[in-house]
Amino acid sequence: MSELVIELDRPKRAARRNGAKSDPLDAIHVAREAMARPRLGTPRSGGERQALSVLLAARRSAINASTEAQQQVFSLVIAAPEPIRGRFRGQKLAAMLNTAATLRMHSSWDTETTSTVVALRTLARRAHAMLREARELQKAIVAIIRNWRPDLLRSSASDRSSRRRCCAPGPTPANSGQVTTRHRRNRYGDRNLNNALHTVVQSRIQYQQAARDYVTRRTAEGKTGREIKR
Predict the structure, then answer these.
(1) Is 113 exposed, middle or buried (0-12, 13-18, 19+ CB in 10 A)?
(2) What pTM was estimated for this model as a whole?
(3) 8-33 burial, b for 16+ CB within 10 Å, e for fewer?
(4) Per-domain boundaries in the chain
(5) 157-179 per-position pLDDT tens digit
(6) Beta strands in the chain (DSSP E)
């Protein structure tokens, strides 16, 4: 006997409030949601799609671990004893990691200094190892895409338009009364892609003079920080 399997995302939050949360109730909510949808998703299939899914999950985990280790290095440097903190003075985070990873022990150090150096060196080496792991996983991901869907690696105007709709960064009208010039960010689409775009914008504002000039000009025009980033 065969069964029809339908894959659904999380039920709407409103149906889970006020204590309406249990396995039987969840099953009922999911069934009603499935019956109400005009189009239904299909169960995840194997092959290249599943291969990409597991590799992306592993890469995301490596990136998160590296980011956490880097943040811990930065925090430890701030609170480190002066002989150690002085070695990092004026350095950016990337240089801090390189310095921390090559720190050497000295027998004359007290317990606090020795422990701080051990922690800094361990965390910096972990951050580097996780970044190397993420790069290897990225190569494996690209190799699968190149053999399976090489068209995804090519870029054109129509491709960029499609990706823009997919990650939904485009402004959506948010008019109210007589105000017809307000827009907000589209809240739908791929959150990872939206996050990537946000990171690009933040990096350009921090490191690119042209972007900073743009922010200055738009601020003088009365735009808010959010409006400028959009």
Answers:
(1) middle
(2) 0.59
(3) eeebeeebeeeeeeeeeeeeebbeeb
(4) 1-43, 47-152, 157-229
(5) 555 555 555 555 666 666 666 65
(6) 171-173, 183-185
